[in-house]
Amino acid sequence: MIYEALRKELRAKRHRMTAQREIVLRVFVNSGGKHLGAEDVYRHLVAKKYKISKATVYRSVELLSKLGFLRRLEFGEGIYRYELATQSDNKTLHQHIICKGCGEILEIDEKIVKDLVHNVMKRTKYKITDYDIKFYGLCRKCQNKINRNAQQNM
Ligand SMILES: [Zn+2]
Ligand SMILES: [Zn+2]
Fold first, then answer.
1. Separation of 144 CA from ligand 1 center, angstroms?
2. 98 and 72 together in one domain
3. What total of structural domains would you count in the chain?
4. Ligand 1 center to residue 33 CA distance, Å?
5. How many other CB atoms are there within 10 angstroms of residue 55's CB atom?
């Protein structure tokens, strides 16, 4: 169980406030694979009437990512987002595509980018050990909105 692993890790590293860390981790477990910023987590907990300070939430997400429970993501918004590092349904490794219009973030199956990584290795003769690929664009909805606006302005 992920909470048991967290408790063990925190104890081993002599971190305090286990309960708070666990509450923060729980938000991610229950989010259904969302990519949340520390602010989102804080607002969610406040809405649920948890007594936890903003600083604790920020420190907790950072610690959880340092301990390997969360994966830190950066989509050029000037904030960090986080997601569970290990997902129950085996989709641990995936890349992201981000809509510049509405901010939607979709996950791209690793299989799709495998060829790309393979080609880069072939080209550069590097042995690639890690990568983080992001695609930016406009989702279907935002494309339609732009098309509609263009038609109205004609
Ligand atoms: Zn969009
Ligand atoms: Zn993701």
1. 9
2. no
3. 2
4. 18
5. 10
140 Cα: distance to centroid of ligand 1 (angstroms): 7
Residues with CB in 5 Å of ion ligand 2: 83, 107
Report the 10 Å Cβ neighbour count for 59: 16
* Ligand at shortest distance from the CA of 28: 2
Q: Are residues 11 and 64 in the same domain?
A: yes
Sequence letter at residue 151: Q
How many CB atoms are located within 10 Å of the residue 118 CB? 11
Per-residue confidence in pLDDT tens, the chain, 154 aa: 788 888 898 888 888 778 899 999 999 999 988 899 999 999 999 999 999 999 999 999 999 999 989 999 999 889 999 999 875 444 567 899 999 999 999 999 888 899 999 999 999 999 998 888 999 999 999 999 998 988 887 6
Q: What is the pTM of this model?
A: 0.78
